[in-house]
Structures are given as C-alpha cells and as structure tokens.
Predict the structure.
Amino acid sequence: MLRNSDTDPIDPSKSRADWMKWLSRAPTSMLLEALKGHVPEEPSWLRQPETGLMMVKGRIGGNGEPFNLGEMTVTRCAIKIKDSQQQERVGVAYVLGRSKRRAFLASLGDALLQDTTHQRYWLEKLIDPIQQHLSTLSDQKNKKAQETKVDFFTVAREAGG
Amino acid sequence: MIFSRLLEKPVVDTDMNEPITDLATLSPGFGDETHSSQFIFRTVLNALSYPGRLNTLHHDARPPLGLNPVASGVLLALLDSETSLWLSDSLRNTLASTWLQFHTDCTITDDIKTADFVWIKRFAECPALDQLQTGSDAYPDRSAICIIEVESLTKKSDQGSFVLQGPGIKETQELDISAWSREECEMWLEFWNSNRALFPCGVDVFFSDGEALVGLPRTSLLSFLPREV
C-alpha cells in the first residue's frame, strides 16, 4: 500500500498513527524541550534502541509494479512506562537515521500520549508545536520553489496562469 | 531488511482509547543483547561439545511467567528472522510465541517437518525424532534443534540413568532424567537409536530443567542402566 502521507489531512487527535508520524519526524531539540522533566533516567525498555536497515519500496505513477528503491537507516525502540492510572503503556518509535536518543524521546512521547487523562495536554504541548514547525518548514520550502518557478510565455497554456 | 517483516504483520492498535494490552503484556528480552547472546551461544557450544554434562545457564532476559528460563534464553539467542520454531501443544497458548516473535522476528510454524527449532514442554508431547527436519546427506546441518523440558537433571532418577559414549566423552558420562518413568526412558532410547541410525543426518537435542542445559548431539551413543535395588 502506497500513500503520500505528506498530503494527508492534518488532525493529530485522529489516531495514534498520526501522532507517531509527527513524533518520528520531530527534531530532537523540540522533543527534548517538550518532554523536559518527564525523561526517566533509567528507562524500562521492552526493546532497547537499535539501528537497522529498512527496504523502501517504490512504484512509478502509483500503478506500476512495486520495486525496491533502496535501503534506509532506521532506529527503533519500545519503552514501557506506568501512566497516571498505574497502567502499563508501551511507546514505540521508528525514526529515520541513527539517533538512538531521538528514537527514545519519540517512543516516550508515544507512551505519554496513550495516557487518556493527559492526552489533551500532551497533544497541545508536544504534537501541536511539532506540527506547526514542520508545516512552516514545508511552507518555506514550497515558497522557495515557487520563487524559482519559470514561466514559459512562449508556450501557449491551456488554462491561463 | 531487518524490519521489513514487522511491517507485513497486521496492525494491532487502531483505536487510541483502547488499551494496548498486546505489547504491554510482553516482557523485555536481553538487557545486554550482545554479551548475553554470546554467553548463551558459548554455553550451547559447550553443551554439544561435552554431551551429557550439566551447564548452568543464567541470563538477564525476562521471559514470560511460567516459561522455562533456560529454554527461552537459548531460543532468544539462537532464533532470528530466517528461522522457524515449532511449539508443543502446551506451549502454544502461552506468551512464548508472541514474546519470541517480538524479540527475534522468527516464524512460528505448525509444520514440524520444516521447523528449524522444536520446543517441547513435556516428554509426552515429543514426536518420534524422524518426524523432525533431519537434514540431507549433502546438507546434514539443515536439521532441527530440539529442546525438551524435563523436571530435574540434578536429582538421581529412581529408574536408572542414561549412559553416554562418543565424541566429547572420555569414557562414559551419566545422565539422570529423574521424572521420567521406566517406559519413557525406554521410549526415548528407541527414539534416539533410530535418530542415530540416520547419521550423519539426524537431530541434536537439548534437555533443560530450568537451571541447567544438557546437550545430546547426534554423535552420542546412548544406553540405559537400570538402578539396582
């Protein structure tokens, strides 16, 4: 199944998959800032952070045969914490690159967000800024790309503009 | 390619209001994966090099409650995404399969003939060894490793003891499996002799009582010495 998650509607309260997506893309500094005071010194791991390779599959035009595009470095981990109701929650993160710290912080965020009593708090404190930051980045990128757009006036356009 | 298999597995959690009981019930694997699995590998190697000797095995993994820690540890160290495991009936409804699959990415199979590893909780559930993967003359190494849990390996058996001979044993080596009845001992002897007859093919067996690991490679000759009354 292929889908372009960049163009999906943005609604972090939708599901766990959505906040995991934002967490896995967030820069370490933002995660650290938001989670300050909640980072356990000796985390209880279900799976310690480990780095491996993941095959990225591609498909041309969205309907061609899938092919192996190449391998990417991915770091993953699973952390166990007790939530405010003393219930065990497992946070999972898969992030691109080799940063174990980033995977750790993202999984911690996932675990904290599963605590239903504090979910709103964490969505506002953790996910909203990340979302804002990342959409600003992509806006800037789009804007820059727009600025360098070349119009070929000599070529007749079908739908003006 | 290590993670690719995980993605093919069905997604368990879809509703964020439902507690994720699935992962929360699992316990961690090795604390120090590299050294723990190397230590276990060494112990397994020793067990096969000196058949019938008791090798105590402690490790820092936390297998689900009720599972034999030695057998779980050995499988946790040896299994990977290219190997398959067959579980005997009384292990099938435990957390053994979920735990090992989560930590090693192994495949759990129902077909004992293709399994690379076979884990048997009680001797009563042990099939004849020729039903397992025994390898071929060209590739005798493509055979199954069978782990059988037993009550105790340290207590002397009332029935008598097995006597081992062969490579890795200077003269003879005794092995007591205390909870086995006389019939079970004789049945095992029969299983083992037909396994020996397949040499160089055949399976290698480990016994474990939860404290110690004993190896019984296909090279060992086995006889039974009834206890004198």
Helices of chain A lie at 16-25, 28-35, 100-113, 119-147.
